[in-house]
Amino acid sequence: VSSDGHSTGALGYVDLGIAQARLAWLSKEQILNTRPWTEIEQLLK
User: How far apart, in Å, are the Cα atoms of 40 and each of 24, 35, 37, 43, 44?
Assistant: First the structure.
């Protein structure tokens, strides 16, 4: 989930990304950047 922001003022757009993920019925397990870095490293191996 990304804000696609290029400034701190755009961080509020994260809520829009989360709303889109919810509309698509995605769970946090299906979204890569909700995981800890160690888990992402394991997925990339």
Answer: 22, 7, 5, 5, 6
List, for residues 1-45, the tens digit of each pLDDT value. Answer: 776 777 888 888 888 888 999 999 999 889 888 899 999 999 898
Distance CA 32, CA 6 (A): 20
Q: Give the Cα separation of 42 and 31 in Å (integer).
A: 15
Distance, in Å, from the CA atom of 34 to the CA atom of 2, rounded to the nearest integer, reads: 11
**For residue 20, what are the CA distances in angstroms to 36, 37, 42?**
22, 23, 27
